[in-house]
Amino acid sequence: VRQPHVEGQGPLTTISADDLYYDPFDFEIDNDPYPVWRRLRDEAPLYYNERYEFYALSRYTDVAPALTDWQTYRSGKGSVLEVIRANIEIPPGVILFEDPPLHDIHRGLLARVFTPKRMSALEPKIREFTVRCLDPLVGAGTFDLIQQLGAQMPMRTIGFLLGIPESDQEAIRDRLDKGMNLEETSSEEMYGDGFLDGSMFAEYIDWRAKHPSDDLMTEMLNTEFEDETGTVRRLSREEILTYVTLLAGAGNETTTRLIGWTGKLLAEHPDQRREIARDRSLLPNAIEEILRFEAPSPIQARSVARDVELYGQTVPEGSIMTLLNASANRDERHFPDPDIFDIHRRIDRHLSFGYGIHFCLGASLARLEGRVALDELLNRWTDWDVDWGNAKLAHTSTARGWERLPVTLG
Ligand code: HEM
Protein backbone atom coordinates (compact mmCIF):
# COMPACT_ATOMS: atom_id res chain seq x y z
CA VAL A 1 0.00 0.00 0.00
CA ARG A 2 1.72 3.14 -1.16
CA GLN A 3 0.31 6.48 -0.23
CA PRO A 4 1.21 9.99 -1.33
CA HIS A 5 4.04 11.32 0.78
CA VAL A 6 2.94 14.14 3.07
CA GLU A 7 6.08 16.16 2.51
CA GLY A 8 6.36 15.59 -1.22
CA GLN A 9 9.57 13.60 -0.94
CA GLY A 10 8.51 10.61 -2.99
CA PRO A 11 6.23 7.75 -2.09
CA LEU A 12 5.44 6.87 1.49
CA THR A 13 4.82 3.27 2.31
CA THR A 14 4.02 1.37 5.44
CA ILE A 15 4.43 -1.95 3.65
CA SER A 16 7.86 -3.42 3.07
CA ALA A 17 8.65 -2.87 -0.60
CA ASP A 18 11.09 -5.25 -2.30
CA ASP A 19 13.75 -2.60 -2.43
CA LEU A 20 13.19 -1.26 1.08
CA TYR A 21 13.32 -3.93 3.68
CA TYR A 22 14.34 -3.45 7.29
CA ASP A 23 15.02 -6.55 9.32
CA PRO A 24 16.68 -6.12 12.73
CA PHE A 25 17.65 -9.81 12.74
CA ASP A 26 19.53 -9.64 9.43
CA PHE A 27 23.26 -9.59 10.24
CA GLU A 28 24.08 -7.96 6.89
CA ILE A 29 21.81 -5.04 7.70
CA ASP A 30 23.02 -4.95 11.30
CA ASN A 31 26.61 -4.49 10.08
CA ASP A 32 25.62 -1.08 8.71
CA PRO A 33 21.96 -0.20 9.32
CA TYR A 34 22.40 3.51 8.65
CA PRO A 35 21.61 3.49 4.90
CA VAL A 36 18.41 1.53 5.54
CA TRP A 37 17.44 3.75 8.47
CA ARG A 38 17.98 6.83 6.30
CA ARG A 39 15.67 5.39 3.66
CA LEU A 40 13.08 4.62 6.31
CA ARG A 41 13.22 8.22 7.53
CA ASP A 42 12.93 9.56 3.99
CA GLU A 43 10.58 7.10 2.31
CA ALA A 44 8.72 5.19 5.01
CA PRO A 45 8.73 7.12 8.30
CA LEU A 46 6.02 4.70 9.37
CA TYR A 47 7.29 1.34 8.27
CA TYR A 48 5.74 -2.10 8.61
CA ASN A 49 7.67 -5.35 8.55
CA GLU A 50 5.31 -8.16 7.51
CA ARG A 51 7.62 -11.01 8.36
CA TYR A 52 7.97 -10.12 12.03
CA GLU A 53 4.79 -8.05 12.19
CA PHE A 54 6.12 -4.84 13.67
CA TYR A 55 5.91 -1.16 12.83
CA ALA A 56 8.91 1.16 13.03
CA LEU A 57 9.29 4.86 13.64
CA SER A 58 12.66 6.28 12.67
CA ARG A 59 12.46 10.10 12.71
CA TYR A 60 13.49 12.07 15.79
CA THR A 61 10.19 13.97 15.84
CA ASP A 62 8.30 10.67 16.02
CA VAL A 63 10.61 8.60 18.23
CA ALA A 64 11.13 11.15 21.04
CA PRO A 65 7.42 11.81 21.73
CA ALA A 66 6.57 8.11 21.41
CA LEU A 67 9.21 7.26 24.04
CA THR A 68 7.54 9.66 26.47
CA ASP A 69 3.94 8.58 25.62
CA TRP A 70 3.80 5.52 27.88
CA GLN A 71 0.00 5.51 27.85
CA THR A 72 0.00 4.68 24.15
CA TYR A 73 3.32 2.86 23.78
CA ARG A 74 3.44 0.31 26.58
CA SER A 75 6.35 -1.74 27.92
CA GLY A 76 4.32 -4.20 30.01
CA LYS A 77 4.58 -7.02 27.44
CA GLY A 78 8.29 -6.32 27.01
CA SER A 79 10.35 -3.59 25.39
CA VAL A 80 12.42 -5.96 23.28
CA LEU A 81 10.88 -7.14 20.02
CA GLU A 82 11.54 -10.84 20.66
CA VAL A 83 10.14 -10.63 24.17
CA ILE A 84 6.84 -9.17 22.96
CA ARG A 85 6.63 -11.68 20.13
CA ALA A 86 7.42 -14.62 22.42
CA ASN A 87 4.60 -13.60 24.75
CA ILE A 88 6.46 -14.70 27.84
CA GLU A 89 5.52 -14.15 31.43
CA ILE A 90 7.52 -11.29 32.93
CA PRO A 91 8.35 -11.40 36.63
CA PRO A 92 7.41 -8.27 38.61
CA GLY A 93 10.33 -5.89 39.17
CA VAL A 94 11.79 -5.97 35.64
CA ILE A 95 11.09 -2.25 35.34
CA LEU A 96 12.18 -2.17 31.71
CA PHE A 97 9.16 -4.35 31.01
CA GLU A 98 6.61 -2.61 33.26
CA ASP A 99 4.06 0.18 32.99
CA PRO A 100 2.78 2.52 35.69
CA PRO A 101 1.70 2.20 38.42
CA LEU A 102 3.93 -0.86 39.06
CA HIS A 103 6.80 0.64 37.10
CA ASP A 104 6.81 3.75 39.25
CA ILE A 105 6.78 1.82 42.52
CA HIS A 106 9.58 -0.51 41.44
CA ARG A 107 11.65 2.19 39.77
CA GLY A 108 11.27 4.41 42.84
CA LEU A 109 12.61 1.58 44.96
CA LEU A 110 15.58 0.99 42.72
CA ALA A 111 16.27 4.71 42.50
CA ARG A 112 16.52 4.79 46.29
CA VAL A 113 19.52 2.47 46.26
CA PHE A 114 20.88 3.48 42.86
CA THR A 115 21.64 7.08 43.77
CA PRO A 116 23.83 9.56 41.88
CA LYS A 117 25.89 9.90 45.08
CA ARG A 118 26.58 6.19 45.16
CA MET A 119 27.46 6.25 41.45
CA SER A 120 29.96 9.09 41.69
CA ALA A 121 31.54 7.51 44.78
CA LEU A 122 32.33 4.57 42.49
CA GLU A 123 34.78 6.50 40.33
CA PRO A 124 37.96 5.39 42.18
CA LYS A 125 36.80 1.77 41.93
CA ILE A 126 36.02 2.10 38.21
CA ARG A 127 39.47 3.59 37.72
CA GLU A 128 41.09 0.78 39.69
CA PHE A 129 39.30 -1.84 37.57
CA THR A 130 40.32 -0.03 34.37
CA VAL A 131 43.96 0.33 35.44
CA ARG A 132 44.06 -3.36 36.35
CA CYS A 133 42.91 -4.18 32.83
CA LEU A 134 45.22 -1.77 31.00
CA ASP A 135 48.50 -1.76 32.92
CA PRO A 136 49.52 -5.30 31.92
CA LEU A 137 49.06 -4.27 28.26
CA VAL A 138 51.59 -1.43 28.31
CA GLY A 139 54.38 -2.46 25.97
CA ALA A 140 52.19 -4.85 24.00
CA GLY A 141 51.81 -3.94 20.34
CA THR A 142 48.18 -4.92 20.19
CA PHE A 143 45.26 -6.00 22.37
CA ASP A 144 41.54 -6.63 22.08
CA LEU A 145 39.69 -3.64 23.48
CA ILE A 146 36.56 -5.66 24.13
CA GLN A 147 38.04 -8.80 25.66
CA GLN A 148 40.66 -6.95 27.70
CA LEU A 149 38.68 -3.91 28.82
CA GLY A 150 35.13 -3.54 27.48
CA ALA A 151 33.92 -6.91 28.72
CA GLN A 152 35.88 -6.70 31.99
CA MET A 153 35.47 -3.30 33.60
CA PRO A 154 31.65 -2.91 33.45
CA MET A 155 31.25 -6.43 34.82
CA ARG A 156 33.66 -5.70 37.71
CA THR A 157 31.84 -2.42 38.37
CA ILE A 158 28.32 -3.80 38.47
CA GLY A 159 29.58 -6.89 40.33
CA PHE A 160 31.20 -4.67 42.96
CA LEU A 161 28.09 -2.52 43.23
CA LEU A 162 25.84 -5.53 43.70
CA GLY A 163 28.24 -7.44 45.91
CA ILE A 164 28.95 -10.44 43.67
CA PRO A 165 32.34 -12.04 44.38
CA GLU A 166 34.91 -11.36 41.64
CA SER A 167 35.63 -15.06 41.25
CA ASP A 168 32.07 -15.61 40.00
CA GLN A 169 31.59 -12.53 37.86
CA GLU A 170 32.97 -13.98 34.64
CA ALA A 171 30.68 -17.00 34.69
CA ILE A 172 27.69 -14.72 35.21
CA ARG A 173 28.67 -12.41 32.40
CA ASP A 174 29.13 -15.38 30.06
CA ARG A 175 25.67 -16.63 30.89
CA LEU A 176 24.14 -13.18 30.33
CA ASP A 177 26.06 -12.76 27.05
CA LYS A 178 25.03 -16.18 25.81
CA GLY A 179 21.43 -15.49 26.70
CA MET A 180 21.41 -12.44 24.47
CA ASN A 181 23.59 -13.58 21.58
CA LEU A 182 21.56 -14.26 18.45
CA GLU A 183 24.33 -16.40 17.00
CA GLU A 184 24.17 -18.82 19.93
CA THR A 185 20.53 -18.73 20.95
CA SER A 186 17.37 -18.54 18.91
CA SER A 187 15.17 -15.61 19.76
CA GLU A 188 12.44 -18.02 20.92
CA GLU A 189 14.78 -19.65 23.41
CA MET A 190 16.44 -16.46 24.43
CA TYR A 191 14.26 -15.30 27.25
CA GLY A 192 13.18 -18.71 28.43
CA ASP A 193 15.37 -20.99 30.52
CA GLY A 194 15.24 -18.97 33.71
CA PHE A 195 17.02 -16.10 32.06
CA LEU A 196 14.84 -13.46 33.67
CA ASP A 197 13.92 -15.21 36.90
CA GLY A 198 17.20 -14.54 38.66
CA SER A 199 17.99 -18.19 39.36
CA MET A 200 21.67 -17.54 38.64
CA PHE A 201 21.86 -15.12 41.57
CA ALA A 202 19.84 -17.08 44.11
CA GLU A 203 22.73 -18.36 46.19
CA TYR A 204 24.30 -14.89 46.54
CA ILE A 205 21.17 -13.43 48.04
CA ASP A 206 21.02 -16.15 50.66
CA TRP A 207 24.73 -15.70 51.37
CA ARG A 208 24.41 -11.90 51.57
CA ALA A 209 21.49 -12.16 53.97
CA LYS A 210 23.92 -13.87 56.37
CA HIS A 211 26.93 -11.67 55.48
CA PRO A 212 25.72 -8.07 55.14
CA SER A 213 28.02 -5.51 53.54
CA ASP A 214 27.63 -2.01 52.07
CA ASP A 215 26.59 -3.21 48.61
CA LEU A 216 23.25 -2.89 46.82
CA MET A 217 22.15 -6.42 47.57
CA THR A 218 22.45 -5.80 51.32
CA GLU A 219 20.64 -2.50 51.00
CA MET A 220 17.83 -4.14 49.07
CA LEU A 221 17.54 -6.79 51.76
CA ASN A 222 17.01 -4.00 54.32
CA THR A 223 14.79 -1.69 52.28
CA GLU A 224 11.27 -1.08 53.52
CA PHE A 225 8.69 0.32 51.15
CA GLU A 226 4.96 0.73 50.57
CA ASP A 227 3.77 -1.69 47.92
CA GLU A 228 0.85 -1.34 45.51
CA THR A 229 -1.61 -2.52 48.16
CA GLY A 230 -0.41 0.17 50.61
CA THR A 231 1.37 -2.36 52.86
CA VAL A 232 4.77 -1.37 54.24
CA ARG A 233 7.07 -4.34 53.82
CA ARG A 234 10.53 -5.54 52.81
CA LEU A 235 11.40 -6.82 49.38
CA SER A 236 10.93 -10.53 48.87
CA ARG A 237 13.84 -12.72 47.88
CA GLU A 238 12.27 -13.14 44.44
CA GLU A 239 11.96 -9.39 43.96
CA ILE A 240 15.60 -8.82 44.89
CA LEU A 241 16.62 -11.58 42.49
CA THR A 242 14.74 -9.85 39.72
CA TYR A 243 16.38 -6.49 40.42
CA VAL A 244 19.83 -7.98 40.56
CA THR A 245 19.32 -9.79 37.27
CA LEU A 246 17.92 -6.66 35.66
CA LEU A 247 20.84 -4.51 36.77
CA ALA A 248 23.43 -7.09 35.78
CA GLY A 249 21.73 -7.56 32.40
CA ALA A 250 21.14 -3.88 31.65
CA GLY A 251 24.45 -2.62 33.00
CA ASN A 252 26.92 -4.96 31.38
CA GLU A 253 26.58 -5.42 27.68
CA THR A 254 25.52 -1.89 26.76
CA THR A 255 28.56 -0.41 28.50
CA THR A 256 30.83 -2.99 26.88
CA ARG A 257 29.53 -1.80 23.50
CA LEU A 258 30.02 1.87 24.42
CA ILE A 259 33.69 1.18 25.16
CA GLY A 260 34.04 -0.61 21.81
CA TRP A 261 32.50 2.26 19.87
CA THR A 262 34.81 4.65 21.72
CA GLY A 263 37.84 2.73 20.48
CA LYS A 264 36.51 2.43 16.95
CA LEU A 265 35.39 6.01 16.45
CA LEU A 266 38.53 7.54 17.92
CA ALA A 267 40.72 5.23 15.82
CA GLU A 268 38.95 6.68 12.80
CA HIS A 269 39.29 10.28 14.01
CA PRO A 270 42.91 10.69 15.13
CA ASP A 271 42.76 14.49 15.28
CA GLN A 272 39.84 14.43 17.68
CA ARG A 273 41.52 11.67 19.69
CA ARG A 274 44.68 13.75 20.12
CA GLU A 275 42.63 16.79 21.01
CA ILE A 276 40.95 14.92 23.87
CA ALA A 277 44.33 13.57 24.95
CA ARG A 278 45.59 17.15 25.29
CA ASP A 279 42.43 18.53 26.92
CA ARG A 280 40.54 16.10 29.14
CA SER A 281 37.74 18.59 29.75
CA LEU A 282 36.51 17.40 26.33
CA LEU A 283 35.85 13.89 27.67
CA PRO A 284 32.18 14.33 28.72
CA ASN A 285 31.01 15.78 25.42
CA ALA A 286 33.09 13.27 23.48
CA ILE A 287 31.27 10.44 25.27
CA GLU A 288 27.89 12.07 24.46
CA GLU A 289 28.83 12.29 20.78
CA ILE A 290 29.97 8.66 20.76
CA LEU A 291 26.63 7.68 22.34
CA ARG A 292 24.70 9.75 19.78
CA PHE A 293 26.70 8.46 16.83
CA GLU A 294 26.53 4.76 17.73
CA ALA A 295 23.69 3.97 20.12
CA PRO A 296 24.62 0.76 21.97
CA SER A 297 20.91 0.01 22.45
CA PRO A 298 19.43 1.05 19.09
CA ILE A 299 15.85 -0.23 19.15
CA GLN A 300 13.15 0.05 21.83
CA ALA A 301 9.96 -1.94 21.27
CA ARG A 302 6.48 -1.19 22.59
CA SER A 303 2.94 -2.60 22.42
CA VAL A 304 0.41 -0.13 21.06
CA ALA A 305 -2.45 0.39 23.53
CA ARG A 306 -4.94 2.20 21.24
CA ASP A 307 -5.45 2.83 17.53
CA VAL A 308 -2.96 5.51 16.50
CA GLU A 309 -3.09 7.68 13.37
CA LEU A 310 0.36 8.22 11.87
CA TYR A 311 1.21 9.48 8.38
CA GLY A 312 -2.36 8.94 7.27
CA GLN A 313 -2.42 5.34 8.43
CA THR A 314 -3.99 3.62 11.40
CA VAL A 315 -1.68 1.57 13.56
CA PRO A 316 -4.13 -0.77 15.27
CA GLU A 317 -4.28 -1.35 19.00
CA GLY A 318 -2.28 -4.44 19.90
CA SER A 319 0.42 -3.86 17.26
CA ILE A 320 4.12 -3.93 18.02
CA MET A 321 5.87 -0.60 17.48
CA THR A 322 9.65 -0.32 17.36
CA LEU A 323 11.19 3.06 18.13
CA LEU A 324 14.52 3.32 16.32
CA ASN A 325 16.36 5.64 18.67
CA ALA A 326 19.68 5.07 16.87
CA SER A 327 18.06 6.27 13.64
CA ALA A 328 16.59 9.31 15.38
CA ASN A 329 20.10 10.20 16.57
CA ARG A 330 21.16 10.43 12.91
CA ASP A 331 18.09 12.29 11.69
CA GLU A 332 19.19 15.21 9.53
CA ARG A 333 15.92 16.94 10.38
CA HIS A 334 17.14 17.24 13.97
CA PHE A 335 20.96 17.10 13.99
CA PRO A 336 22.88 19.09 11.35
CA ASP A 337 25.30 16.85 9.40
CA PRO A 338 24.32 13.88 11.57
CA ASP A 339 26.76 11.47 9.93
CA ILE A 340 29.72 13.64 10.86
CA PHE A 341 31.37 12.62 14.11
CA ASP A 342 32.23 15.77 16.05
CA ILE A 343 33.21 15.79 19.71
CA HIS A 344 32.42 19.52 19.84
CA ARG A 345 28.84 19.09 18.67
CA ARG A 346 26.25 20.72 20.89
CA ILE A 347 23.81 17.94 21.64
CA ASP A 348 20.52 18.99 23.19
CA ARG A 349 19.30 15.42 23.64
CA HIS A 350 20.32 12.21 21.96
CA LEU A 351 18.05 9.22 22.53
CA SER A 352 20.65 6.58 23.33
CA PHE A 353 19.48 6.28 26.94
CA GLY A 354 15.82 6.47 25.94
CA TYR A 355 13.53 9.26 27.08
CA GLY A 356 10.64 9.58 29.52
CA ILE A 357 9.75 7.26 32.37
CA HIS A 358 12.06 4.45 31.23
CA PHE A 359 15.08 6.75 30.81
CA CYS A 360 18.13 4.65 31.61
CA LEU A 361 18.56 4.36 35.35
CA GLY A 362 22.27 3.67 34.88
CA ALA A 363 22.99 6.60 32.54
CA SER A 364 25.23 8.47 34.97
CA LEU A 365 27.12 5.28 35.77
CA ALA A 366 27.52 4.41 32.06
CA ARG A 367 28.78 7.92 31.29
CA LEU A 368 31.27 7.71 34.15
CA GLU A 369 32.52 4.32 32.97
CA GLY A 370 32.89 5.64 29.42
CA ARG A 371 34.83 8.69 30.58
CA VAL A 372 37.16 6.75 32.86
CA ALA A 373 37.83 4.11 30.19
CA LEU A 374 38.78 6.73 27.61
CA ASP A 375 40.77 8.80 30.10
CA GLU A 376 42.88 5.81 31.13
CA LEU A 377 43.34 4.65 27.53
CA LEU A 378 44.67 8.09 26.64
CA ASN A 379 46.93 8.07 29.71
CA ARG A 380 48.74 5.15 28.11
CA TRP A 381 48.32 5.55 24.35
CA THR A 382 47.42 8.53 22.21
CA ASP A 383 47.65 6.55 18.98
CA TRP A 384 45.81 3.43 18.03
CA ASP A 385 44.27 1.81 15.00
CA VAL A 386 41.85 -1.07 14.52
CA ASP A 387 42.97 -4.37 13.03
CA TRP A 388 39.88 -4.65 10.83
CA GLY A 389 40.71 -8.12 9.57
CA ASN A 390 40.11 -9.49 13.03
CA ALA A 391 37.31 -7.24 14.30
CA LYS A 392 33.83 -8.70 14.72
CA LEU A 393 30.44 -7.23 15.48
CA ALA A 394 28.26 -8.92 18.08
CA HIS A 395 24.74 -9.64 16.90
CA THR A 396 22.65 -9.52 20.01
CA SER A 397 19.04 -8.95 20.66
CA THR A 398 19.18 -5.57 22.36
CA ALA A 399 22.63 -4.15 21.85
CA ARG A 400 24.76 -3.31 18.84
CA GLY A 401 28.53 -3.13 18.96
CA TRP A 402 31.83 -4.97 18.81
CA GLU A 403 32.48 -8.42 20.14
CA ARG A 404 36.15 -8.32 19.10
CA LEU A 405 38.00 -5.10 18.44
CA PRO A 406 41.76 -5.67 18.21
CA VAL A 407 43.66 -2.40 18.36
CA THR A 408 47.23 -1.85 17.23
CA LEU A 409 49.09 0.69 19.29
CA GLY A 410 51.23 3.50 17.97
C1 HEM B 1 16.93 1.60 30.59
C2 HEM B 1 20.50 2.28 27.39
C3 HEM B 1 23.79 1.39 30.83
C4 HEM B 1 20.24 0.15 33.84
C5 HEM B 1 17.62 1.92 29.45
C6 HEM B 1 17.00 2.36 28.21
C7 HEM B 1 18.00 2.52 27.31
C8 HEM B 1 19.25 2.21 27.97
C9 HEM B 1 17.85 2.94 25.85
C10 HEM B 1 15.50 2.61 27.96
C11 HEM B 1 14.79 1.41 27.46
C12 HEM B 1 13.36 1.69 27.05
O1 HEM B 1 12.95 2.84 26.89
O2 HEM B 1 12.61 0.70 26.88
C13 HEM B 1 21.69 2.11 28.05
C14 HEM B 1 23.00 2.34 27.45
C15 HEM B 1 23.93 2.09 28.43
C16 HEM B 1 23.20 1.71 29.63
C17 HEM B 1 23.23 2.76 26.01
C18 HEM B 1 25.42 2.14 28.35
C19 HEM B 1 26.10 2.86 27.51
C20 HEM B 1 23.13 1.01 31.95
C21 HEM B 1 23.73 0.68 33.22
C22 HEM B 1 22.72 0.31 34.05
C23 HEM B 1 21.49 0.43 33.32
C24 HEM B 1 25.22 0.76 33.51
C25 HEM B 1 22.74 -0.15 35.47
C26 HEM B 1 23.69 -0.67 36.08
C27 HEM B 1 19.06 0.42 33.21
C28 HEM B 1 17.75 0.15 33.79
C29 HEM B 1 16.79 0.56 32.85
C30 HEM B 1 17.53 1.08 31.71
C31 HEM B 1 17.48 -0.45 35.16
C32 HEM B 1 15.28 0.47 32.97
C33 HEM B 1 14.71 1.81 33.38
C34 HEM B 1 13.18 1.81 33.37
O3 HEM B 1 12.56 1.01 32.67
O4 HEM B 1 12.61 2.64 34.10
N1 HEM B 1 18.99 1.85 29.28
N2 HEM B 1 21.86 1.73 29.35
N3 HEM B 1 21.77 0.86 32.06
N4 HEM B 1 18.88 0.97 31.95
FE1 HEM B 1 20.38 1.45 30.71
Automatic annotation (TrEMBL):
GO molecular function: cholest-4-en-3-one 26-monooxygenase activity; heme binding; iron ion binding; steroid hydroxylase activity
Alphabetically ordered keywords of this record: Heme, Iron, Metal-binding, Monooxygenase, Oxidoreductase
Keyword Transmembrane attributed: no
Signal peptide positions (record): none
UniProt cross-references to SUPFAM superfamilies, sorted A to Z: Cytochrome P450
Matching InterPro entries: Cyt_P450, Cyt_P450_B, Cyt_P450_CS, Cyt_P450_sf
UniProt-listed Gene3D superfamilies: Cytochrome P450
A biological-process GO annotation: cholesterol catabolic process
Similarity section: Belongs to the cytochrome P450 family.
Entries under PANTHER family matching the protein: BIOTIN BIOSYNTHESIS CYTOCHROME P450, P450, PUTATIVE (EUROFUNG)-RELATED
Protein name as annotated: Cytochrome P450
Species assigned in the record: Parafrankia irregularis
